[in-house]
Automatic annotation (TrEMBL):
Pfam families according to UniProt: ketoacyl-synt, Ketoacyl-synt_C
Upper taxonomic lineage: Bacteria, Bacillati, Actinomycetota, Actinomycetes, Kitasatosporales
Similarity-based family: Belongs to the thiolase-like superfamily. Beta-ketoacyl-ACP synthases family.
Organism name: Streptomyces klenkii
InterPro entries linked to this entry: Beta-ketoacyl_synthase, Ketoacyl_synth_AS, Ketoacyl_synth_C, Ketoacyl_synth_N, PKS_Beta-ketoAc_synthase_dom, Thiolase-like
Domain of life of the organism encoding this protein: Bacteria
Keywords of this entry: Acyltransferase, Transferase
Domain Ketosynthase family 3 (KS3): 2-408
PANTHER family: BETA KETOACYL-ACYL CARRIER PROTEIN SYNTHASE (PTHR11712:SF347), POLYKETIDE SYNTHASE-RELATED (PTHR11712)
Gene Ontology molecular-function annotations: 3-oxoacyl-[acyl-carrier-protein] synthase activity
CDD domains in alphabetical order: KAS_I_II
GO biological process: fatty acid biosynthetic process
Classification via SMART domains: PKS_KS (SM00825)
UniProt name for this protein: Beta-ketoacyl-[acyl-carrier-protein] synthase family protein
Length: 409
């Protein structure tokens, strides 16, 4: 069993606000952040969950932040909050012993879209020389963060669609376990509330069409769910070898006890209707944590609000936890689907559940259907609970399944 990784810092930028506490307050209130988005007026679906009041000149700790893609701006902001939360300073660490692993589904897609429009309208002469470094996935995520912090250890970008942020956490744990680093900044970022992405998801039939009442559109596990609401944001967790955290007297917020990744090999976008991949990932992650389904007290579900995802995920939870019935929540009712950032944001909120003893409710849930009934979904208001072991599920197009097991410190 790999050495346990300690979570010592959290940083978030989400549609609920800038910072962990702003996001936590919003998910505990259980309302929605979905609104009509002016930039999407020409798209088939114009609603999205976007980060409010974000000013790169104020919030991004970098020189000339306006030159960076929006996803990069989110990432740098979240990473600096996570470092401050962990009590880390670049002046005190060995940069060669720090790793960065960041996931995203699309890289700097806003930069790519705007640059392509400029190319078509004005020709190549007016294209920015920073176009490539703005949208290439490794640059928009991990590389710009490494440049800003002076990190010289392993710097990786991972992409497993909507499971990317969780995949980054698992990959960072592997780097810690094999001795490649002492500290890892791991997480995800995406800013896909763009005309191209919104139109493409709408054409696929993945987005909620409840545009007349955007605040009620994202409805995880509800019988009237009809798709997800596009979101954006970033989440970063500071992970350390447990011994390293102790040596610098950094109290762990939680422990990463296990993680696993599987593939459905079923369909480009639809999950395996039998849920074999997710079920296998849960069992593998629990085995690595030396735990059983009966030990799990809480699950932060992927819970997108699509017909197929919620049906499959609820079925797996019913099958694996027929007696213990862990509490289940999905924060996508509040935050929308933040794509490659979702797994990291949700893992961070799961850590906060372990530290605060509160499980946020699933927004916009009114009643289950036959596919989603039989799970202990937290609704209405936060539930007071002190689980010792929690799971965070993340699924992605292409059949990616990633499960992270988090334990109370």
């Amino acid at each position: 069993m790999p050495e346990t990784a300690a979570v010592t810092g959290l940083g978030l930028v989400t549609p609920a606000g800038i910072g962990l506490e702003a996001t936590w307050r919003a998910v505990c209130r259980g309302g929605s952040t979905a609104r009509h988005h002016p930039e999407l007026e020409a798209a088939p679906v114009s609603i999205a969950c976007t980060v409010p009041g974000f000013d790169p000149r104020v919030h991004v700790p970098a020189p000339r932040p306006w030159r960076l893609d929006r996803s990069t701006q989110f990432l740098l902001t979240a990473a600096h909050e996570a470092m401050a939360h962990a009590g880390l300073s670049t002046e005190e660490w060995d940069p060669s012993r720090v790793a960065i692993v960041i996931g995203s589904a699309a890289g700097g897609v806003a930069t790519l879209e705007s640059s392509h429009c400029k190319l078509l309208e004005s020709g190549p002469a007016l294209l920015s020389p920073l176009t490539l470094t703005g949208f290439l996935p490794n640059m928009a995520a991990a590389a710009h963060l490494a440049l800003g912090l002076g990190v010289t250890g392993p710097t990786l970008h991972v992409s497993t669609a909507c499971a990317s942020g969780a995949t980054a956490l698992g990959t960072a744990c592997l780097l810690l376990a094999c001795g490649a680093c002492d500290i890892a900044l791991a997480g995800g970022t995406d800013a896909m509330a763009t005309p191209l992405c919104a139109a493409a998801f709408a054409r696929m039939g993945a987005l909620s069409r409840r545009t007349g009442e955007p605040e009620a559109a994202s409805r995880p596990f509800d019988k009237d769910r009809d798709g997800f609401v596009l979101g954006e944001g970033a989440g970063v967790l500071v992970l350390e070898r447990a011994g390293h955290a102790r040596a610098r007297s950094a109290p762990p917020l939680a422990l990463v006890l296990g993680h696993a990744a599987t593939s459905d090999a079923h369909d480009p976008v639809a999950p395996d209707p039998r849920g074999h991949g997710l079920r296998s990932a849960v069992l593998q992650a629990l085995r690595q944590a030396d735990a059983t389904p009966g030990d799990v007290g809480h699950i932060n579900a992927h819970g997108t609000g699509t017909l197929l995802n919620d049906r499959v995920e609820a079925g797996v939870v019913r099958d694996l936890f027929p007696v213990s019935a862990p509490s289940v929540t999905s924060v996508k009712g509040t935050l929308g689907h933040t794509m490659g950032a979702a797994g990291a944001i949700e893992a961070a909120l799961t850590v906060h559940t372990l530290t605060t003893g509160l499980v946020p409710p699933t927004a916009n849930f009114h009643a289950p259907d036959g596919d989603t009934a039989g799970i202990d979904l937290v609704t209405g208001s936060p539930r007071r609970q002190h689980p010792k072991l929690a799971l965070s599920h993340s699924l992605g197009f292409g059949g990616h399944n990633t499960v992270v097991v988090l334990g109370a410190a």
